[in-house]
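Sample intake sheet
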Amino acid sequence: MIRFRKGVRNIFRGVSVEEYAEINECADLRSDMTQEERHDAGAPDAANESVGGAILWASIVLWQDRPLFVLVGTLCLVGSCGLKIFAMVRHLVA
């Protein structure tokens, strides 16, 4: 049996309602900052308390700082999946 350190299971959980509210509040405050202020601000404590909070904060930061990167990446992902599905359907029909 694998033994976990104390608190490890608590890290790999979802985001609680309170953490979600804190992350969204910090994201709203961050959206009004300049680029230098954003760099110095850092992450809120709720983003460091769980993996889900860290992923949520990272996605918010990426969307605020590099929206074009997110859009291009999403379009590439959807296009790639679409082409794979099209190839599978074409193979099944032929």
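Comment: The mean pLDDT is 86. Residues 67-93 form the longest helix (27 residues).
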